[in-house]
Amino acid sequence: MNGKIPAVCRISTNFNRGAVCSRLRSSSSSSSSGGLAYSRRPLTWQPLLMAPQYTPPCQAEGRRREAGEGAAMVLVLRRCRVKSKVVMMMLMTVMMMMMTVVMMIICCSRLPSCRLPVRFDPPPADTCLASKALSHPLLQRTNGRVQRLPGDVLEVDLEGSSWQPWREPGNCSNYLTRFGRRLSPVLLVSLPCSGNTWLRYLLEGATGLFTGSRYFDDHLQHGGFLGEGVTMDKGTTLLHKTHGATLEPFTHDLVTRYLEVDPNLPTVLLIRDPARAVLSYYKLSKLIGGDRHRAEIPESMFRGEEFRDFVADVTLLWEELATDRLLWTTKPLYVLYYEDLTANPIHHLRLLLDFLSVPTDEGRLVCLAAHLDGSFRRNSSRTFDPFTQEEKLRFAQAVRRVNNLLELLGYPLIPAHADRPW
Fold first, then answer.
1. Phi, psi of 209 (to 5 degrees)
2. What are 155-166's pLDDT values in tens digits?
3. Sorting pLDDT into bands at 50, 70 and 90, what band is 71?
4. Alpha carbon distance, N-terminus to C-terminus of the chain
5. Which of 211, 155, 217, 215 lies closest to 181 in space, CA to CA?
6. In the prediction, which pLDDT does 21 show?
7. Mapping DSSP to helix (H, G, I), strand (E, B) and coil, where does residue 4 land?
8. Closest Cα partner for 15 from 37, 61, 47?
9. What is the pLDDT of residues 282-340, one digit of tens each?
10. Which class for 58: exposed (0-12), middle (13-18), buried (19 or more C-beta within 10 A)?
């Protein structure tokens, strides 16, 4: 070898060459040393059984880094599992504590000894709840009256048209009904066939002033209601009849119902039992001619699907009309029940005149008491019940809801008469 290290010792490889190279170095050094005998025994090379593959330094570094990151990820996952278990245990503990508190409250509330004493001390006079309730605008209308506008002195137009309501010989034939001048606007709101025509007759007989109507019925006009079709802005009628949005074609749209009746005018709300109102309204819708306000129709017309649909629609209209006026009217509102009016007409007529701020003419009331029926009141003695149990239940539920609102606002409840069909 002549003292030189083979090239295999200088090549940077991964196999284990330490023994071979050290043997060569020792041989070389011994040959160069003068005091040692040089051995000329030939050097024998022992072949390696298997040489490992060569791995670049960058790839080896990447593998070590991946191994380190994998170990770190395993450690993080283990910590997360431990934390989630701790959080779950804490949540379960809190829920158990809350359930325990709730159970203690329930159990304690059932024991008289655990209940706290309640004191009912009356509030101070200046903060009384009753005084606060009476200050609400809806409740102020209950006992309100019509405030006549400046210039309204209930003046009668002696030059205009007139009508003689009672023509029999005697004192009553001297009374006439005429138009007024500069009268304050007042509304009469009701479902059709709820007694509005009869109430107009009573008011005209008691005051001598015509009542107006948003609609024009030539049969009523020929019968003495000369205010038919007269607009309210003329100021010539005592009050103005309207049915709101309850005329055919039926609609339950909220905006339409609001726009049909002016909420900023004093209003008389006439309410009749819904079952009786539905019957009369259906008769009126099936009749034509001048006698349709008093005529009857055969019972067979109440057995079809058309009548069933009519009952469902008009029952809802009855409730909507009452609740709309009770909630939307901002001026004084007077609630009058048809059943009370028929039971004691003169008494309730006096109350209505007081609401309208119209003085009472006792002579007219005497003549009116002798001529109560008028010309367009339907006097039906027939007892007929065409309603199903479902329809009767619908009547009862509608009356109950309206009664709840009436009681809340301080009005009398709808009377329950003996011949009510439901």
1. -120, 140
2. 999 999 999 999
3. low
4. 132
5. 155
6. 45
7. coil
8. 47
9. 999 998 876 777 788 898 999 999 999 999 999 999 999 999 999 999 999 999 999 99
10. exposed
Can you tell me the distance from the alpha carbon of 374 to that of 81, in angstroms, rounded to the nearest whole number?
Answer: 92
Q: Return the amino acid letter for 212.
A: G
Domains and CATH numbers, the chain: 139-409 (3.40.50.300)
- Which tokens belong to 334? 């007077």
| Strands (E) located in 305-346 | 333-337
Query: 405 or 82: which carries more pLDDT confidence?
Result: 405
Peptide bond into 249 cis (omega under 30): yes
pLDDT 10s digits, 375-406: 777 666 567 789 999 999 999 999 999 999 99
Say if CB 157 and CB 237 are below 8 A apart: no
Three-class DSSP category at 157 = coil
Q: Which DSSP symbol is given to 252?
A: -
Chain-centroid distance of CA 344 in Å reads 38
Whole-Å CA distances, 178 to 159, 164, 207, 216, 227: 9, 9, 9, 18, 9
CB atoms within 10 A of CB 282: 20
Tokens of residue 394, six digits: 């619908």
CB of 196 within 8 A of CB of 244?
no
CA distance 375 to 388: 33
Cβ–Cβ < 8 Å for 197, 188: no
- Rounded alpha-carbon distances, angstroms, from residue 405 to 37, 85, 319, 391: 133, 57, 11, 22
Q: How far is CA 22 from the centre of its chain?
A: 101
**What are the CA-CA distances from residue 128 to residues 124, 144, 407, 409, 411 (Å)?**
6, 22, 20, 18, 21
Strand, coil or helix: what is 189? Answer: strand
Q: Is 188 exposed, middle or buried (0-12, 13-18, 19+ CB in 10 A)?
A: buried
Q: Which alpha helices (DSSP H) does 136-213 contain, by range?
A: 137-140, 196-207
Q: Are 381 and 370 in contact (CB under 8 A)?
A: no
